[in-house]
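Quick start: read one record
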Amino acid sequence: MTEIFQEQAIEIRRTILQQFHQLCENHNLRYSLAYGTLLGAVRHGGMIPWDDDIDLVMPREDYEILCELYPTNNCKDRYQFVCNRNHPELKTKIGYFIDYTTITETAGNMPEYHGIHIDVYPLDIMPNDAKERKKLLRQRKVLHRLIRLKDLHPQIMKGTQKWIRYGVQLLLSPIRVEKLYKKLHTLSGKWNSLPE
């Protein structure tokens, strides 16, 4: 394994983006640059000099197709898409298009999901009605909080905080995080499937 520097990692991310673009072209999937990546493209004609990641957004329906294209990690393809839908053990609400010939230093205990990658965010339609929109956002907020609470790591905490977190996890133990993610995806995609 060879250590690479920031400039080389940025070049690998650009290559990943090119591969992702080709995949989307082949399957008629829509996506857009987003956040700092979009700002960098407009303002700097590339990446923001101090930015080191690439963020994309994708309409939910295209995101779901992308999930179906990569149902499992077959460890054969160099570039793969992983998300909570095709890897329930992955605790994230976004997807990653990964170069599996790389591994990042921040991989922790799950290096199989943490090669150099680009982030892909599903983009959902919000209801026009203010009350419906407020209700949807409130429901999503509750689900996000429950998911975060389920993903606490009390073993790295100390003192009272550690025992409070153990208590919270004990109370939430009957709730499976996979069901929370499924509910969040269903709720998020609710307005995408309605006729215009």
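The first strand starts at residue 32 and ends at 33.
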